[in-house]
Structure formats: structure tokens, C-alpha cells
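Running this now, will post back.
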Amino acid sequence: MPRTSQRLSKRTYLAQATRLREQLVELQVELKEAPFKVLLILAGQEGAGRGNLLNTLAEWLDPRGVETFSYHAPTEEEEKHPHQWRFWRSLPGIGRIGLYAGSWYTETLREEARSKRVLGLVGQEAERIRDFELLLANAGTLIVKVWLQLSKEAQGRRLRSLRAEPATAWRVTDEDWHHHRIYDRLAKTAQLIRKKTDRPGARWTVIDAEDERARDLAVVQLLLNQFRQQRRKMNRLGWDRRVKPVTSLRPSGRRRLSTLPLDQDLSEKDYDALREKWLGRLNRAVRAALAAGRSIVFAFEGWDAAGKGGAIRRLTSAIDPRDYRVIPVAKPTDEEKHAHYLWRFWRDLPRDGRMAVFDRSWYGRVLVERLEGFCREDEWRRAFGEINQFERELTDHGTIVLKYWLHVSHAEQLRRFREREATPHKRHKMNAEDWRNRKKRGAYEIAVGDMLALTDRDNAPWHLVPADNKRYARLEVLRSASRRIEAILAE
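Update: finished.
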């Protein structure tokens, strides 16, 4: 990790500041057309001047392309979501700069200041942060991380100086003095965190913060240098999204599809007799989970005309409408296209004690986006691990994740397509894209097989539902959901 330190006269500072300020404006102009965003993370000892540095940056940058974030202790609403929820929701879009005076590092350091934590626990949290930043960096985000270094002696002098002036005395709190007293312990923790989260794409730069002028210029110069490097890197990488022949990554997943018994039969009489039983059981299971403060997330995937909508309607008929949301996932909006593909799903996650049902989901990344060339090959290959990490964040928080693939035969899908076209109130469900996708069924089967093989995990397993018989499929969703929720609550 490079370290920068120098002292500047006011005259030298003003001369360099004028030049760097002009370059910052040029950076913002170029960034508007660039396929990435910039996150500038400022961390460091108390009294290192993050607030003053932010004021300088706010003065120099065009405010229309900048967002500033400062995280404090989580609110009640934030605590009722997975830990990363509040960070995902506030990520700036492509072409913008996010300035972070407080970030995903803030709470870990704050907890360490409150009590002596086991370094192993701090290390685990640092690994989560590292994985989060890696996910963003792999998607093209430029992450510039600065540790503003201030010695214990310099920190003490700065705190005493601020306290001595009536105009600034209010800025020095009891918490600041507490941090000063435990300086060595916090420095040790901070060093561990930086070591574990210093990785390609998210490197730390330590900048001496004792001289405020040198500090500000060093941070701005670092931002400019890393932006230029990122721009050259993205130009070399290119954004080739040409569709390549689909080959299987894990044949075992496709075998699960081919061996699924689709000839299940269930008469209307038997369905009616069993439906109320399983609706009641699901209602009790869901109410117990929500009352226990658990959130529930359903993700429905399947072939066109496989019956996802019907299955969802039967599922939600057992739940109090005030407790759930159904989220239909369509093509991303312009806003969503300028964000990481997981952003819109993080945004719609339910709080503790609530339920969300996604009609299609984040798996579009490894299905339609893979096959239609909406993302590069390295992006959809990487997505399997990113999705597993996303779902692990949910289940570690306590969220119950239920994933369904509704499977219909080629012949049954054709029958349903023709039925839809012949039925006036169903014609709106059909379009040319459905027929085009059907011609690619072989390629989609390969992609679905890879999805099943690479994202079927104990914490979030896939439920494969034979759906040639709609009544059987709907009942199977009710049964498996009830049993899964009951089993998790029993643990």
C-alpha cells in the first residue's frame, strides 16, 4: 500500500489546486460517457479531516455529478434488512461519483471502539467487505480507497486546537477523546482491515493527513491517476457482447431437467380436496416466520407459459396482502441499466417480518442476458458466484429463500402457446419474442442446467416443479414451501 506525505506552502498549494481543479472538471465530463462509476472512500483516524476534505471536493466538483454519503449507526429500518442493503440502495449510477465519508467500514470500526472485539470476528467482517468490493470492481466500478493517517500526537494536538476555539469546540466530542485514548488498539484493527481488504480493484492508499493542504492535493491527484488508469483498462477490455455458441459448464444440471417426471397427474377433484389443506398449512408457516421477525423471499423462474403467474396467485392467496409484495421483473429501466444488475433486487428486498415474491429474478443474468448477449461472457460466468454470495447474505441475515423452476415439456409449451393465441383474454401474454425464445430451447436448457448445478446450495436450494399439469404444479409449490419454511423454523 503506497504512502504519500509532503508539506506545502500556501503559494504552492494554490498553484497546484487551480490545475487539479480544472482536471477534476474534465474528469467529470469524461465520466459522463464512461461505462463505469467512481467510489471515493475516505477513512482514517478521528481528526484526520474527512469533513474538511469533503468540503474541498464539494467545492471543486460539479455537484450535478456527485453524491455524498456518510453512514451512521443503522436505523431501525436498516437493521431489519440484510447488512449490505443500505449500501446497495445508495450506490451511484454509471457516470457519477460517490464520495463516502462513512462507508461499509464505518460500523466495523465503530463497534471496535465500543468494545474489544475478537480480531477473528473483525477479520470475517473484512472478508465480507472484500467480497462486496470485488463484486463491484468486477462490474467496472472504480473504487478509490484512502486512509487518512494521523499520528496519536498529531491527533491530540488537533483535538486540543479545535477545543480551544469557541467556534470549533463543538466539533470535539467525548467519543473523539475516547478514540484518542484507545488509539493504538484502533490502529491495530484498522491495519488488519486494510490488509484483508487491499485487493486488486480496491487498493488502499495511505495519505498523511497532518498537513491539510498536502492531504487534499494528494487525494485529488490519486483520484485523477486512478480514473485515467481505469479508463485505459476499460478501453482495452471493450464491451463485446456478441453471442457465442452455448456450451454446458455442468452437465449434471441439465440431467436433472431431463429426468424430471413431467407425467404427473392430479384431477380437479383431488386438487380441490388437497388445496385447502396446504393453503392453511402454508398460512400457518408464513405467519409463524413473519411473527418471528424472519423475512421470506420467493424467486420464480421457468419456461414461458409454464404457469408461474398461476402458481404465484395460489401461493399469495394464503397470505395476508399486507404482508407481501409481488415483484414482476421485466426488462431493466434506463436507471437500472446504469446500476449493477443486482441493485434492483437489493432495493426490493423485504424488511424483517415481510415477504416478497419475485416473478423472474436475478437469475436473468445467467439465462436471458447470457443467451441474448446483454452481458459479456466473463460477466455471466462470474454471476454464478455473485448470486451465491447474494443469497448467502440474505440467509445469514435470517431471510428464508425459496427458489422454483417450473418445467414444462416442449410439446406442452406449444399447446399452451396456441391456446393463448386462440383465447381473446390471453392473447396479450403472447408476442414474437416468446416464439423466438422457443426456437432457442436447446440453448436455454443448457443455461438452465448450469444455473441449477452452480447455484443449488443448502442455504438456498432449487425446487424443480413438473408443470405439465398445472394443478399438480400449484399444489407442489404450496407443499414444498410449507415444508421448507417449517423445517427452517424448526432449526
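The two ends are 44 Å apart (CA to CA). More later if anyone needs it.
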